[in-house]
Amino acid sequence: MFRKVLVVAACAVTGLLVVAGPASAAYPPDAPSIGTSSSSVANGGSTTVSGTGWEPGATISLTIASTPQSLGTASVQSDGTFSKDVTLPCVDSGTHTISASGTSSSGTANTASTTITVTGSCNPGSGTLPHTGSDAGPVLTLAAGLVLLGAVLVIVLSRRRAAADV
User: Fold this and answer.
1) Helix ranges (DSSP H) in 28-126
2) What is the dihedral sign for C-alpha 135, 140, 141, 146?
3) Cα torsion angle, 75, 80, 86, 88, sign
4) For residue 89, what is the DSSP state?
5) Do the domain assignments include residue 131?
6) CB-CB neighbours of 64 under 10 Å
7) What is the number of structural domains in the chain?
8) Are 112 and 82 in contact (CB under 8 A)?
9) Does 69 map to a domain?
10) Each residue of 43-87: pLDDT tens digit?
11) What CATH number does the domain containing 39 carry?
12) Are 56 and 78 in contact (CB under 8 A)?
């Protein structure tokens, strides 16, 4: 009888292991990653940068490359994620890399990156150069008029003298 109970117990344990499978744990933990709410943003526009796989409570530094500029920092939530609305600085249009640097969920320093396409330019208004200096047109017209008046006076006076000498 004892053997039958032992055989049934062994079969039950074997069946549970086959059906349930081994316990699985993600090791090593997933590397941190980031993304943006849109893949294309107008120059000087805004987007949301979010990430997963970071150490809860850590501060993540966000930068945009090409001409490295800070986009600020974000705090990681208890589930290892963060989300931050950022405004892009004035950069050349084209593809740029946004990077997040901080402590990963495994406790090591890590950097994750994503690319974004920046469109347009940062020139405010119509995109024309600003008006500097003054309008010299009226001054030049006055100066030309005075030179012409002087030339006419010289001619008139020289004719009077020539007529008076005769």
Assistant:
1) none
2) positive
3) positive
4) -
5) no
6) 20
7) 1
8) no
9) yes
10) 889 999 999 999 999 999 999 987 789 999 999 999 999 999 999
11) 2.60.40.10
12) yes
